[in-house]
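Usage

Read records sequentially. Each one opens with the input sequence:
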Amino acid sequence: MEEKELQTHKLFLREAIKLARENVATGRGGPFGAVIVKDGQIIARGSNQVLGSKDPTMHAEVDAIRTACKKLNHFELKDCIIYSSCEPCPMCLGAIYWARPKALYFAADRHTAAKHGFDDKFIYDEIVKEPAQRGIKTVCITLEEREEPFERWDQKEDKMQY
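and closes with the structure output:
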């Protein structure tokens, strides 16, 4: 990576870290911030708002993705870069993959987060288990009509693949 490119990435990561620091001061949520950049400009900022919103999904990356998608009026962020103050949790990583940005950069890793009480290892461990073996009771009940919505989707002529 060229020095100029590295400095640009550091600049945007520092903005994500700034949001994380500010978030600690407000008490809205944990020490996490994220920015989304398109064509060298920040188009969205997000911070963890789990405590203030009482919403366990209101993580910094999800907040930023929602804002960016609304701004771009699209569900994909294919020409964007996501910068996060910390390695995204499994939920946020899934959201990032669904948003399809061209890159993700983060500052602190999951081990640093775990050292400070934000440990997602149990989720990583649960994901690979068969549903019946998970810590939260997870049951698939087979219904006759279970495939009908998918069949209707297959037949829909004006669908947009995502």
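Summary fields computed downstream for this record:
- The helical segments are 3-26, 50-53, 60-72, 90-99, 110-115, 121-127, 148-155.
- The beta strands are 33-38, 41-47, 80-86, 103-108.
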